[in-house]
Specification:
Strand 4, helix 7 and strand 5 form a beta-alpha-beta unit. This protein has a single domain, classed as 5'-nuclease (Rossmann fold), CATH 3.40.50.1010. Helix 5 packs across helix 6 and helix 6 crosses helix 7. The chain has about 130 residues and is an alpha/beta fold. The chain starts with a strand and ends with a strand. About 55% of the residues lie in helices and about 15% in strands. It contains seven helices and five strands; from the N terminus they run E-H-H-E-H-H-E-H-H-E-H-E.
Length: about 130
């Protein structure tokens, strides 16, 4: 694999909803030999009670789930502190950012929150608004 495509909860939600325009981006990344990943925390954030379990399970089978390890949690905490951000409001964003920073480059993140993700990831991750 050469590089990583990281999805935040909105990106994963678009996969779950079978958003064809969005899925085309994921397919293009796969064709470019990029690994598509989500943080395990994103599974919780993207869960919609209107989505059947079968549909949810199918969608997450399309991505690689990265665990929230102690190292990821410590990096997320460090990022929050470095940028003066509160964990209550930005915890999952920080975990997703730490996951992205730990991924193989080049790194591209598809996110609904480009301002916070650009702040948290810096120039190490290409952040693309969705």
């Amino acid at each position: 694999m050469t590089g990583t495509l990281i999805l935040d909860s909105e990106g994963l939600s678009k996969v779950i909803r079978d958003d064809h325009r969005f899925l085309a981006r994921v397919v293009e990344a796969r064709k470019a030999s990029m690994l598509t990943v989500v943080s395990a925390a994103t599974l919780v954030e993207a869960r919609d009670p209107k989505t059947t379990q079968a549909r949810f399970d199918w969608a997450i089978s399309r991505v690689t789930i990265q665990p929230v390890t102690e190292d990821v949690a410590r990096e997320a905490s460090r990022l929050l502190s470095e940028h003066g951000m509160d964990g209550h409001q930005h915890a999952i964003d920080a975990v997703v950012a730490a996951t992205a920073l730990g991924a193989r480059g080049p790194r591209i993140m598809l996110t609904s929150d480009p301002d916070d993700m650009n702040k948290l990831c810096g120039k190490s991750v290409r952040v693309v608004a969705i």
